[in-house]
TrEMBL record:
Domain of life per record: Bacteria
Residue window of the full protein shown: 410 to 702 of 702
Family: Belongs to the short-chain dehydrogenases/reductases (SDR) family.
Name of the protein: Rhamnulose-1-phosphate aldolase/alcohol dehydrogenase
Length: 293
């Protein structure tokens, strides 16, 4: 071609040629994730996030009714072949072992385990009953121990590494008014995650923590007694709680379930966090870094 003509050529045909390319595989394609507390606000958001990146998801929850609703909703959005719901009480060793076995048999293994099931109960220290203490430790610390240990056993047997993520809390780092049992249980989760990281490392199993600050929208915790207790402890009206947490943060932004899901996805995806284990990611709009007022 003459030189000028070569410059004038239009590459209209390239768009058509590009269509022949297959799309890049999704980061979690072929991966299997189990999410405890999957019927709750944060668990549902995490499940949606990893499903969108190509994973198959097993939702685990004690609340069968809520679990059925969320499982059906996600199956409709992402395809029934990608989602399962299993009732399980994370405080029961037998129940947790059975759930992991079911999940691995259903989808052919397990790569990601997110320990997110939780409750929140508050009381002034002097009124904290042994029942409230034991319940908090049972669902949070023991629940995460059982979930993490089972994930570890399965991932080790599978021999392909894996990622364990716990949704702990800002309250595992700093004390909150009238929440001693909850804070202690969340601190136990954070420390336990480091032990999982240490013992999992030789097998390529990573373990990390996501610490949310108050996530009010979508959370079932905040639709119950906890809300009234937090409002009383902070001397504000219940309807002002979201604004209260937002305004005292550095970024002046509310933390949403989707923000926690993004952080959990970061630790779940080998492509994003292959070199991160024993880590903590605070999703707190800056609340833990400084007193802003
Ligand atoms: P949520 O109440 O909406 O969801 C929690 C889910 O856990 C519920 O569906 C509940 O049925 C389930 N669950 C409770 N006990 C269980 C058990 N024994 N076995 C199995 N499932 C059980 O609450 P959320 O706001 O989505 O909280 C999720 C996690 O995030 C919890 O661990 C919570 O402590 C943590 N967190 C939440 C906030 C927040 O402000 N929402 C802040 C910090 C940490």
């Amino acid at each position: 071609l003459p030189e000028q003509e070569a410059f004038d050529i239009e590459y209209w045909w390239l768009e058509e040629a590009k269509l022949q390319r297959s799309p890049p595989p999704k980061p979690l394609a072929g991966k299997v994730a189990l999410v405890t507390g999957g019927a709750g606000g944060i668990g549902r958001a995490i499940a949606r996030r990893v499903l969108a990146e190509g994973a198959c998801v097993v939702l685990v929850d004690i609340d069968q009714g809520a679990l059925a609703t969320v499982t059906a909703e996600l199956a409709q959005a992402h395809g029934p072949d990608h989602v399962r719901g299993l009732q399980c009480d994370v405080t029961s060793e037998a129940s947790v072992i059975a759930a992991f076995r079911h999940a691995a048999l259903e989808f052919g293994g397990l790569d990601i385990a997110v320990s997110n099931a939780g409750i929140a109960a508050a009381a002034p220290l002097e009124d904290t009953s042994i029942e409230l203490w034991n319940h908090s430790q049972g669902v949070l610390a023991t629940g995460y121990f059982l979930v993490g240990r089972e994930a570890f056993r399965l991932m080790k047997a599978q021999g392909a590494g894996g990622s364990i993520v716990v949704i702990a809390s800002k309250n595992g780092m700093v004390a909150s008014p009238q929440a001693s049992a909850y804070c202690a249980a969340k601190a136990a989760e954070i420390q336990l995650s480091r032990s999982f990281a240490l013992e999992g490392a030789p097998w390529g199993i990573r373990s990390n923590v996501v610490n949310p600050d108050a996530v009010i929208r979508g959370s079932r915790i905040w639709s119950g007694k906890w809300s009234a207790e937090r409002a009383a402890a902070n001397k504000i009206a219940e309807q002002d709680l979201e604004a209260f947490y937002r305004d005292r943060s550095m970024l002046k932004r509310s933390v949403l379930p989707e923000d926690i899901a993004e952080a959990a996805y970061f630790f779940a995806a080998e492509r994003l966090s292959a070199k991160s284990t024993g880590n903590i990611l605070n999703v707190d709009a800056g609340n833990l870094a400084a007193f802003t007022r």
